[in-house]
Description:
Elements: H1 2-29, H2 39-48, E1 51-54, E2 58-61, H3 67-76, H4 87-99
Antiparallel strand pairs: 1-2
Helix pairs in contact: 1-3
Amino acid sequence: NDDRILAHFLTCFLALQIFKIFLAKVKSSLPKNSAPISPKCAISQLKKMSLHIIPNEGYTPNYTRTDITDAFHKAFYFRTDFKGITVGDLRKIINLTRKGI
Length: 101
């Protein structure tokens, strides 16, 4: 039982650290004149970012661009907001995020 408690603590601690790094990277990518971003706002914006599947073509963005979504794209070197994305392009984005680039 102690191992489970420790495992739970470590999981939560690592998730918090990863989120702090994510938030710091996004904040550094925001334009100088934009309002500061809160953790709650970042999570809310991430939840709103969705893609619509177009059969046999790929994906199209299903969200509104904001300074925060632009900061996500700038911080993590991907764009999903301008045009449709082919399945192959989405796989490339996923592979880049797995490699940590």
